[in-house]
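Checklist before submission:
- one chain only
- standard amino acids only
- sequence pasted in full

Submission:
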Amino acid sequence: MHEMAITQSVVDAIVAKLGDATVTSVRLEIGRLSGVVPDSVRFCFDVLCTGTSLEGARLDIAEPSGRARCRDCGAEFTLDDFILLCPCGSADVAVLAGRELRITSVEVSHV
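Returned file contents:
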């Protein structure tokens, strides 16, 4: 499960940047075309945060749809799965969005 390694990288990056600061929430953006399963990340997050400054932090995940442009007809359209077909039937499409995988915000406690 590559989600474990991805989530470990997220936790490591936050700890490296914030040190011992108590993290209360983390917001990720995982595009629907990224190949990453958000529910698996949620599970791994809880496990991997144990014993770190992120323990008990809330995880929020935004899952933006994919967007593509057809190279044949020029239409832009949304994609919610990996079937990269334009409504015109062409498979010659450029993916514009939906492959995101990033930390968008981290909230820390100021106690």
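Reviewer check: The chain has a mean pLDDT of 94.
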